[in-house]
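Form P-L/3: holo structure prediction, ligand pyridoxal-5'-phosphate.
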Amino acid sequence: MNAELQTRQEEIVEEFSFYEDWMEKYEQLIEMGKELDALPEQSRLDEHLIRGCQSRVWLLASKDENESVRFQADSDAIITKGLVALMVRVLDGLPPKDIAESDLWFIEKIGLDKHLSPTRANGLNSMVLQMKRYGVAFQAR
Amino acid sequence: MNAELQTRQEEIVEEFSFYEDWMEKYEQLIEMGKELDALPEQSRLDEHLIRGCQSRVWLLASKDENESVRFQADSDAIITKGLVALMVRVLDGLPPKDIAESDLWFIEKIGLDKHLSPTRANGLNSMVLQMKRYGVAFQAR
Amino acid sequence: MSSVLDTASIRGQFPILNREVHGQPLVYLDHAASSQKPIAVIEAQREYLSHYHSNVHRGVHALSQQATDAFERARSTVQYHIGAAHLEEIIWVAGATDGINLVSQAWGREHIEAGDLILITRMEHHANIVPWQMLAKEKGAKVEAVNILADGTLDEKDFQKKLKLNPKMVAFMHVSNTLGTINDAQRLTKMAKAARATVLIDGSQALPHMMVDVAELDCDFYVFSGHKAYGPTGIGVLYGRKSILEAMNPWRGGGEMIDVVSLEHGTTYAELPHKFEAGTPHISGAVALGVALQWLTGVGVKSVMEHETVLSAQARHQLGKIDGLRFIGEAPSISGVVSFVVEGVHPYDIGTLLDQQGIAVRTGHHCTQPIMDHYEIPGTVRASFGAYNTLQEVDALVQGVERALKMLR
Amino acid sequence: MSSVLDTASIRGQFPILNREVHGQPLVYLDHAASSQKPIAVIEAQREYLSHYHSNVHRGVHALSQQATDAFERARSTVQYHIGAAHLEEIIWVAGATDGINLVSQAWGREHIEAGDLILITRMEHHANIVPWQMLAKEKGAKVEAVNILADGTLDEKDFQKKLKLNPKMVAFMHVSNTLGTINDAQRLTKMAKAARATVLIDGSQALPHMMVDVAELDCDFYVFSGHKAYGPTGIGVLYGRKSILEAMNPWRGGGEMIDVVSLEHGTTYAELPHKFEAGTPHISGAVALGVALQWLTGVGVKSVMEHETVLSAQARHQLGKIDGLRFIGEAPSISGVVSFVVEGVHPYDIGTLLDQQGIAVRTGHHCTQPIMDHYEIPGTVRASFGAYNTLQEVDALVQGVERALKMLR
Ligand SMILES: Cc1ncc(COP(=O)(O)O)c(C=O)c1O
Ligand SMILES: Cc1ncc(COP(=O)(O)O)c(C=O)c1O
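OUTPUT (holo model):
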C-alpha cells in the first residue's frame, strides 16, 4: 500500500486518540470543516453532488501534472464538511490506483465506522465510494 | 312474544339438554339434517342461496292461507342442513311479524351461539337474518 | 406548568424509554415520524402470534374463527374510534400511503379525466402529493396546490379561489407533520363539498393526537397509519363513505376480495370491506392497532392533546429565546410539532449533535419538499411530542440545542 | 418410518402448539393457509418494538439508524436466502398478493397492450389470476390458462402449445396450495423465456418448503408471503430482475420512493429498491421475516421438505384406505399438501367434525376456484404439513376423518 497513505492515516489516528468523548471528536470534525476552503459558487453544481447525504456534498476531482488525483469538496453542513475534509486530507494527491485500492482502516480506528453504513444520513459511505470511483476512472484514462 | 315460538324453543332446549358432548349434539344436528326433505332440483336456484356459507344453503319462503310464513330449505352439507332444519322447525308457520321480531334465545341456550358470528363458515347468522327479512317482507305486503 | 397526564405511569408502559443512546438516557422527540409502542400493544401482537394465529375468514376450524373474531373486532374498534356509520367503511391498508394510493388509483382512475383538477395544498406530505401527480400524468389531469401563509396556516382565500375551478378531488392533511398546523378540516370539507368535490383527508398526524369523527367531518375518505398512533408497523386504515366504496372498482386483486372466480365467465367481487382487502391481511397488526386505539382512549385523547400542547408551548417559549432561531410553522391552531431552523447552521448538524446527547429529533424535509421550497430552506429540525414526553425532556432539548449551537457557530 | 427432524425440539419452539381446542390438544394441519411462528420470530418482533423501533431511512438519530440497519439486514438475509444477485432486487411488499399486483399494475400497464396474451395455469391461486384478469380487462388483453392433467400435474404439452401464441407474461405457481403439485419451475421458465415471455413465479407455497434459487430459476419475478414461511403477517417479498425493475415505473407514490418532489417541476423517483417502497415500511415485519428465514435455514430447508414428504406420504397411505375417499392432486412430484374429497360427503362437514376433535384443516376452494371447476367438486378437505407436524398427528387426522365419516354417512 502507498506509504504516504499509511502515514496520513496513522497521523489522523494519533490526532484523534487525544479526544476522549464524542464532543471533542465532533469539535475536531467541525474544526476541519471550517478549515476546508469553500468551493466557489460556480463549482457547486448539481452534477458534483453526492447522493445519499441529507446535507449537500460536492466533490470534484482532477488529475495534476504528476498524474495524481486532486480533490476539492464542500458541504452546506459543517459536520459533513468535516468528514469530507478528513477524506480529502487522506486521499488528496495520491496516484489513482492507490486511491482505487485504498484500505481506509483509519475510519474504524477513530470510531467513525458506524457512520459508514450506506443508510447513514451523512453519506460518508457515498463519499468513499465516489472518491474510489474517481481513482478507477483516472486509472483507466 | 308468540307462545308457539316459546314452546318450540323450550322443546329444543329440553332435547339438547340430554346431550353431554359435542359429538352427540352434532349427531343430533346431522339427524335433523337427514330428516329434512330435500328440495326438488328446480328449487335449488342460485337466487335462493344464502350468502356467507361455505356450503350452499337454499332458503325459500311463502305465505299460506293463514297468512303464516312457510319455509323450505336445503343444503349440500349435512351439518348445515341440520342447522337450517332447526331454524325451520322453530320459525315455520308463524306469522310474519313474530318471525321478524323473534328473540331466538334457544341458540345460546344450546351452545350454538358461537356459530352465530357473521364470520362463521356455516352461515347460521345469514340464515337467521334471511328468515327475519322474509318476516319483514311478508308483513309489508 | 403541570401536566394533565400521569407521565410517570405512562412512561412505565413504554419499554424503549428505559434505554440509553450514546450513553445518555433516550429522549425520544420523533413521534411524528413514528410513535413508540406501549406494552399493551406489543403484548397484543405477541399474544396473537403465540396463541391464536391462523389465517382469517372462511376457516372452518376454531383457531381461524378466533383470529377472524379478533381481526373483525379490531375493525369495529376503529369504526367506533372514528365515528364511522358502518363497519364496512373501515378498510385495512398497509398505512396512510397505501390508503391514499388505493383511492388515487381505484377511485381516481374511474373519476379523473383529462383536464380535471385535483386540488391539494402546499403543506402536504409526499404521500398526498405523488399519488395525485402520478394519476394526473396518466390522465392528463392537473394538480394544483393551495398556498400557505407565512405562519404556516392554509390560505383559505386561495382555497376558495381554487375551489371555483371545480376540482373533482380535494385532498388535504388534517394536521401538518412539518408545520404543526391544525387545519379546520370540517370547514374545509364543507367548502369543498359545496363545490361538489370529493374530499380525502390525510389524518396521519391528527388521529394520534385528537378526537377524529368522520361523520362530523363529513369527508369521503380519511386515512391514517397505525405506527404513528401507538400501533404496529405495516397497518393503517382507509375510511371511505359506503356509497362511494360500493360504487368503486377494487384495486388489488386476489383471494378474499372475490365472490366467484372463473377462467371462462370472469370474476365477480366480494362485498365491502373485503372487496378492497385482497390477500391475507396483516392480522396481528390489525389486532394490535385495535389495542393501540383502546389504549389511547384509556389515557384520554383530549388529555394527550392538552399535554402535548403544554410541551410544545414550553418548547417554543424556551427555544424562541435562542439567537437566530426561527420557527417554521407558527399557526394559531397548532399541534405538538415544533420545527425550526437556525440562521447559518444546517439542521443536519444540530440533529447530529442532539443525537450524541441522546436526543432523537428528525431533520430534513420530512417528506414535505414543497414546504421547504416555500420557505427556501434545506430542511428543519423537528421535535415532536407524544403522550410519553415530559417537560424535563423539553428542557433537555433546549439545553441540547444550545450546546450544539455553541459548538457549531 | 422415522423423521429426519427433531420434532420435539421444534415443537417446543412453537407456543401455540401447547394449546387446546374444544378440550383437545391442537393438531394444526393448516400450514398452507398460514404457518405458525417460532418463538425466535415472535421475540424478534417484540424485541424490535420494545427496544429499537423508529422510522427508517434518512433519520439522523441512533434509533433510526439501528432500525434501518436491522431492516436492511433483513433485506440481505432474503437476498442470500433466494440467491438474488443484487440487494436492490429485493422489494418489500405486504404479501404475495400485493407483490403480484405490483407487477401486474406497474409492469403490466406499461407492457401489456390490446390483444396481448397473459398465460397462467388452471391451478393458480386467485392471487395469480384476478390481477391478470383485471389488467386484461383494462387493456383489452387476454388471459389463457394452461390445462392440468387428471393427477394434478401441469399439462406441459398444452403449455408448449400456448407458448406458441407468444404470451407477453407467463405467470405460474411454483407449488400448488391445493393439489400439492411441485412444478418444474426451472424448466417451465426456460420454455417461457425461449418464447420471449416475461416470467413471474408465485413461490408462496415453495419458499417455506424447499430451496429456492432465483438465479437458477432464471425467472424475472418471484413473490412470496412471510406469514406462510414462519414469519409475521403483513410482509412479503417481490424479487425482480434488476434491469426490469429499473425500467419499470413505480406503483405506489409517496415518501421514501422519491428523489425530488416539486409542485412546479414534477417529481423524480428514488433508486431501487426504494422506488417501489412508498411510505413507512412494515419494519418489524421485515426484521422478523429475516429471522424466520434464518430459523428455517437453521432447521434445514431440505430436512423440512424431507420431513413433510414423509408425513404426507404416510397420510396418503392411510387415508387412501378409506372407502370412497379420493385425493385431489396426486402428482409424482408433490409437497406436504394433501387434498381429498369423500364420495357423498361435503368437505365442510368433515372439517367441522375434525375441528371438534382439535384438528385444524382447511375446507373449501382454497382460493383456487378454477381447480374446483376442473374437478367438478365444491371444495376439498386439505391437510397441510409444516416442520412442526408429526406422524402422531397424521394418525390423529386419519382417525379423526374415520370418526367424522362414521357420523356422516
Ligand atoms: C399459491 C399461493 N399464492 C398466493 C397466495 C396469496 O398469499 P397472501 O394471501 O399471503 O397474499 C397464497 C396463499 O393463500 C398461495 O397459497
Ligand atoms: C401527514 C402525513 N401523511 C402521510 C404520511 C405517510 O404515512 P406512512 O409513511 O405511514 O404511510 C405521514 C408520515 O410520514 C405523514 O406525516
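COMMENT: The two ends of chain C are 32 Å apart (CA to CA).
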